[in-house]
Amino acid sequence: MPNIQMVDLKSQYQKIKSEIDDALIRCVESTNYINGPEVKQFQESLANYLNVRHVIPCANGTDALQIALMSLELNQGDEVIVPSFTYVATAEAIALLGFKPVMVDVDAKTFNINPLEIEKAITSKTKAIVPVHLYGQSADMTLIMDIAQKHNLFVIEDNAQSMGAECMTSEGIWHKTGTIGDIGCNSFFPTKNLGCFGDGGAITTNNDNLAEKCRIIASHGQKKKYYHSILGCNSRLDTLHASILMIKLKYLDKYIVSRQKAASFYSRKLKELEWIEIPYQSSFGKHTFNQYTLIIKDNRRNELQQYLHSNGIPTMIYYPLPLYKQEAFLQFFPDNIVLRNTENLCKSVMSIPMHTELTTEMQEEIIRVISNFK
Fold first, then answer.
1. Residue ranges, the chain, pLDDT below 50
2. Measured on CA atoms in the order 243, 244, 245, 247, is the torsion positive or negative?
3. Whole-model pTM?
4. 64, 105, 139, 295: which has the fewest C-beta neighbours closer than 10 Å?
């Protein structure tokens, strides 16, 4: 039986080991651990890849969200609309800054924020929308941007799970996610499509003014060293991580194709099982499959997960509890809030192994075990 892992970072590293090791050694020998030349090289390379004017590296994806929100100069109590089915960081950054996260339901097929629900949630206090491109698939940015422009709202894209994904916008042109709204927020956590060897992140924008604000905020509020014009934070991408990301960026499109091929193989085989719903792919987006997430019908998810684990197949549940039911957010929401699609997804989603090193043998074993579940 093949050794099946949820994510296989070791095998990915071994294929580019000599390049990575050489880059790390150069960095260590240079001792330029903070803001070394590799950081600037990476931000320029990423800007070219994404076709975006500005890339501001930072320490992690959560910092990217916080810095982006701070750059908008919102007031205490202002409302920011987010999906209710996402990782905690999306809403956490909003609440920590004293703004109010307003959670709306997601689309049952794409798992991304439902634009129709956004419009219903807008009030006089609404100042921004934070759509999340979940699991590697773009949210409907055409509709979201139309709503934002209609109501004069900022749009911050949470692109932590979808580096390299694309969305076709109203002009019929494909754009990389994270470059369509006012600001994009990216994570380079090791398991992402583009991951470093620890925490890392970046902010992307085509707005010169917002880019300048984000740079200042990320550097203790200083434009000139030791002269602090505003209160900021300390959020940097380490040179070591930038060195790794420079190399892995060259392979990103290849990594995405590997994920897409693996997803296609899964879907061909699993679509015959009536009690499973395979991932939906929208016509306006190019899915990168940071996760391959199934819907398990008939309340069989937990039983299936136990069965798979007992047969050596790892799985993950992203996410088991709606954000508005998390203890940390109860202060923001009435007890009777029910967002039906989110509730159903939390009870039925399950992600199976997805990474760049999946082999046909591994996938066939995963599919065999799933198919044998009674």
1. none
2. positive
3. 0.97
4. 295
